[in-house]
Amino acid sequence: MNIKSIRVFAAGVVALPILTTGCSSVTGTVNQSVSVETHGQTGTEVVGASCELTNNKGKWFIQTPGSTTIHRSNDDMQVLCKKESMENGRAAVVSDVKGSMFGNIVFGGGVGAIIDHSNGSAYEYPPVIDVVMGSFSKIETPKNPSAQQDNDKPAEMQSLTASTKTEADNQTPTKDSTSQKLRDLLALRNDNVITEDEFQQKKKALLESL
C-alpha cells in the first residue's frame, strides 16, 4: 500500500465510527477526461503519435493531439507514445488525492472514503499530459496558483524594497556632488555673479538638503 493509499484509508478509518451510515461516494465519478499532446526535443508539436495509457484499472489508446476518458486510480499512470522514425516518448503521470476527498470526509463518512479509494474516485491525474518524444518525464497535477503567489510575495517585497532604495539613493545628493556644488557657488561669489548673502543662503539650503 503506497503513501496515498495509507492517507485515504486512514481518513476513512478515523471517520468510520462517526458516520457508519455514510456509505456513498464522497468525491464523485470514477472517470476523468485527459488530453494528450506530444512534442519533440525542441518543443515542436508532434502530430499523429500513437499513445497507450495504462494504470491498474485499464488501458486506453489515443492519437495525438487528442482526448480520452480514463478510469481514476491511486496508481500512477504510465504513458507510452510511438511514432515512425522517432524515438518513443514515455511519461509517468502522478495520481494525486483530490482536495475534496478530505474536505468532504465527514459528509461521506468513513465507508464512503474507503469506497472512493477502492474505485479510484478519490484520485485525479493532470488534465493535460504532454509527452516529449525520445525522453522520459514525470508529470504532476499543477498546484494551486494562489499558493504559488503567496510563495512569490517575499521575492516581490524584496524587489520592491530594492527598487525603493535605489530611487532614494538617486534622489539623495552624494558628498561628491555636494562638494562640487559648493565649489561652484564659491566660484560664482568670487566672480561677483552672486552676492555674499545669496552665497550664504544657497550654501545653507544645500547643506540642509543632505
Uncertain residue ranges: 8-24, 101-109
CATH architecture of the largest domain: Sandwich
CATH homology-level superfamily of the largest domain? Immunoglobulins
CATH topology of the largest domain: Immunoglobulin-like
Q: Into which percent range does the helicity of residues fall? A: 40-55%
| Radius of gyration over C-alpha positions, nearest whole angstrom | 33 Å
Instruction: Tell me the series of helices and strands, N- to C-terminal.
Output: HEEEEEEEEHHEEEHHH
Kindly describe this structure.
Strand 6 (77-82) and strand 7 form a beta hairpin. By secondary structure, the chain is of the alpha+beta class. It has 2 domains: 3-142, Immunoglobulin-like (Sandwich); 148-208. Helix content is 42%, strand content 25%. A 5-stranded mixed beta sheet has the order 4-3-6-7-11, with no helix packed on it. Strands 1, 2, 5 and 10 form a 4-stranded mixed beta sheet that branches. Strands 8-9 form a two-stranded antiparallel ribbon. It is built from 6 helices and 11 strands. The model is unreliable at 8-24 and 101-109 (pLDDT under 50).
Question: What's this, in brief?
Answer:
With 210 residues, this protein is α+β, with helices and mostly antiparallel strands. Helix content is 42%, strand content 25%.
